[in-house]
Design goal:
Layout: E1 5-8, H1 19-35, E2 43-49, E3 52-57, E4 62-66, E5 71-75
Antiparallel strand pairs: 1-2, 2-3, 3-4, 4-5
Length: 88
């Protein structure tokens, strides 16, 4: 059984993560830094599901590991539009 953990945005990642997960975390952090989001208080949460890491950021961004392909999938939360006519 593996236990999860939490760490601050930009902090040291936990040991034992696949390299591709580390790259994905840093890519998300770089994007947040580039757009200037105020995310200084945000934290990452690592959980292990069926032996595979799943990492979630406080904003709802989720990174999942695919062991068969040694890849990571980043899913960002949907952003709702304030204008109801955007679909036209």
């Amino acid at each position: 059984m593996q236990l999860g953990t939490r760490w601050p945005l930009g902090g040291d990642l936990p040991d034992g993560l696949p390299h591709v997960m580390e790259l994905a975390v840093r890519a998300v952090e770089d994007e947040l830094d580039a757009v200037g989001d105020d995310a200084q208080q945000w934290r990452w949460t690592l959980t292990w599901l069926e032996g595979k890491p799943v990492i979630e950021l406080d904003d709802g961004t989720v990174i999942r590991y695919n062991a068969g392909e040694d890849s990571a999938t980043i899913t960002q939360p949907a952003v709702e539009s304030a204008d109801e006519d955007d679909w036209i």
